[in-house]
Structures are given as structure tokens and as C-alpha cells.
TrEMBL record:
<dbReference type="InterPro" id="IPR011322">
    <property type="entry name" value="N-reg_PII-like_a/b"/>
</dbReference>
<dbReference type="InterPro" id="IPR015867">
    <property type="entry name" value="N-reg_PII/ATP_PRibTrfase_C"/>
</dbReference>
<protein>
    <submittedName>
        <fullName>P-II family nitrogen regulator</fullName>
    </submittedName>
</protein>
<dbReference type="InterPro" id="IPR017918">
    <property type="entry name" value="N-reg_PII_CS"/>
</dbReference>
<dbReference type="Pfam" id="PF00543">
    <property type="entry name" value="P-II"/>
</dbReference>
<comment type="similarity">
    <text>Belongs to the P(II) protein family.</text>
</comment>
<dbReference type="InterPro" id="IPR002187">
    <property type="entry name" value="N-reg_PII"/>
</dbReference>
């Protein structure tokens, strides 16, 4: 199993939910976060802001745990459909997940997803 941590702009959330739903991914958590990347929260290029302070801006973080075999397809779809080509399109962090347990039944692993 993989955990995907998908950080995007709020305006892309509906598209992201559709991407996940279309692939049978129904378990997810959403957080409203404050963050920044290489531009330190400034809108233009990286280099110009080398000496600037950090400006955190609101983003959406969606975390979902999915079977290994879905991971590549979900990642490709997010990149294809969410990408605008502008700074701040977001990021996906990918983690290996050791186990998952559905408390109601005691099932383990991807059966528990
Ligand atoms: N290295 C990082 N570690 C943790 N979170 C990050 C990291 N980089 C980016 N993020 C999170 O992802 C959000 C979007 O980052 P962003 O897309 O601006 O990344 P970037 O590396 O600056 O890429 P780009 O140059 O396309 O803007 C940030 O607001 C922050 O919440
Ligand atoms: Mg950035």
C-alpha cells in the first residue's frame, strides 16, 4: 500500500476528488494547511526571492492510502489534470504503508482499505 499526500490549491479540490472517485479511491482525509515551496510563498520566480522571508499561504492537503497498483495511475492523472504549468501547482509525497486494519472486521492490508 502507498499513502499519497497530495498538496494542491483549493480551486483544484473538486477535480482531485473526481480523479480519486473515478479510480475507486474512496478513503481520504482533507486538511486545510498553510505552506510554501521554493518561492517561499511569493508568486514569481525562485531566484528573486532568495533573501525574502517566508510567506505561508493556504493550501489543501489530501491524504489517501491506496493499493500499490493504483498509485502510478493516480499520480499520473493528478499531474495530467491538475497541472497548469505555473509555480505552486502543488506536490505529491509518496509513502510506503506497512499495514491497515479495519476495526469493524479485523481485516488487514489492502482488504482493509
Ligand atoms: N519540500 C517540501 N516539503 C513539504 N511540503 C512542501 C515542500 N515543497 C512544497 N510543499 C508543500 O506543497 C505546496 C506547493 O508547493 P509548490 O507547488 O509551490 O512546490 P515548488 O517546489 O515550489 O514547485 P513550483 O516551483 O512549481 O512552485 C507548498 O505550499 C507546501 O505546502
Ligand atoms: Mg512553488
Amino acid at each position: 500500500m502507498k499513502k499519497l499526500e497530495i498538496i494542491i490549491k483549493a480551486e483544484k479540490l473538486e477535480q482531485l476528488k473526481e480523479i480519486l472517485n473515478q479510480r475507486g479511491v474512496h478513503g481520504m482525509n482533507l486538511s486545510n494547511i498553510m505552506g510554501c515551496g521554493n518561492q517561499k510563498g511569493n508568486i514569481r520566480s525562485t531566484r528573486k526571492y532568495d533573501n525574502s522571508s517566508i510567506n505561508l499561504i493556504p493550501k489543501i492537503k489530501v491524504e489517501t492510502v491506496i493499493p500499490d497498483e493504483l498509485s502510478e495511475d493516480v499520480i499520473n492523472a493528478v499531474v495530467d489534470q491538475i497541472q497548469t504549468g505555473n509555480f505552486g501547482d502543488g506536490k505529491i509525497f509518496v509513502y510506503d504503508v506497512e499495514d491497515a486494519i479495519r476495526i469493524r472486521t479485523g481485516e488487514h492490508g489492502s482488504d482493509a482499505l
